[in-house]
Amino acid sequence: xxxxxxxxWIAFALVALAMxxxxxxxxxxxxxxxxxxxxxxxxxxxxxxxxxxxxxxxxxxxxxxxxGSFDLTITSGGVERRYLLDVPDSYDGSAMPLxxxxxxxxxxxxxxxxxxxxSELGADEGFINVYPxxxxxxxxxxxxxxx
Length: 147
Hints:
This protein has a domain at 68-147: 3-Layer(aba) Sandwich (Rossmann fold), CATH 3.40.50.1820.
């Protein structure tokens, strides 16, 4: 397998993994079922349906329903990372699909947002877009560490 093909499949696997992780985490709000049954779960002593000692992360509070385009940062592993976030006007704080948009090597979130048209599509079709920035390597070129 050539190096380019290997890198493609690694990147594909990472995106699939990230989407799977988001799908699982988006379920953090639970359902609206009023059945508080804890059949087979004697360790659950609160009303969130989760075993004791666990709980919803801060990101699962549903947010305030703020729509718009945002230029934000997050610190991960001690490194500040920049990302763009586009939330459609139809967002009301409830669960909504999210698309993770990874730009190409040497690219930027701004350029990727402009050239893909995904933000406009998200506004029309009802999904949130996130455009993270890759880190720069030693030569100053942005790229994803997929090796």
